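thoughts on both lines:
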Amino acid sequence: MITKKLPTIANVTPGGRFVLQCPVGLTYQSVLFAMGGTTFDQTHLSKLTVKINGKSVQDFATGQRLADLNRYYGRPDGAGFLSIHFTRPELNPAWRHLPALGTQDVDTLTIEGDIDAAASADLTLDAWATLGPPSLLGAFLKIREFPYNFAAGTNEWDAIPKGPRIAAIHAMAGDVTHAEVELDGVKIFDADKTTAQELQKLAESRGRVPVAGFTSIDFLLTGELPDAVATEGVQDRRLRVNKTAAGAADLVLEMLDGFQGI
């Protein structure tokens, strides 16, 4: 493994949109951002996106959301740091490096994000990467956010993407009480929130750390990447969520897919 400081990040300023141009060729395992300044942390970052050849492949509404997802998977960020993981240390050893981003056949890899105007003028933002030997871009975990307006009670969403394998679905609302996933009339997940969280804490690979602000449907609790749910050929794909109060929230999907997929 190589640990390398990445190039200077452009437009690191309050109210600006920063752009990190990542050198291509090697295989990206993770990227770690170091934040400095009087007033600057993950709460001042939003609209974070990882782009390959200009196409967004991972999106996070806020830096806090990324930090919360890291915490759920048992890889919390230290104060002043924020990380993006392409390899997945919570998986079993045989699988954890498969989703790494090979960039040997990639033209550009960039990471971008908005910096809140409330951040102090003395802010700093630097980045390091952990890297492996050169490899081609294969299957990796895409992260997509789908806005949804929840009603109180049962909500049904029939827009689960077709094609990629679904690793996890996160309903970004703290008052979810029950969730179901149904494919072609067969329920593959059906649990209340409390039970789901207990099962997640007992995960065979690495116990999850449920976060109060969202509810997770996690198909990789065994640590085996092939357990991600196949959607190819599935005609009817439904998520049902019970929520105590109406309100807008995002559905965050982690999907094993190739570059040309969704």
Q: What stands out?
A: The chain has two domains: 2-138, 141-257. The chain has a mean pLDDT of 95. The helical segments are 63-72, 193-201. The first helix runs from residue 63 to 72.
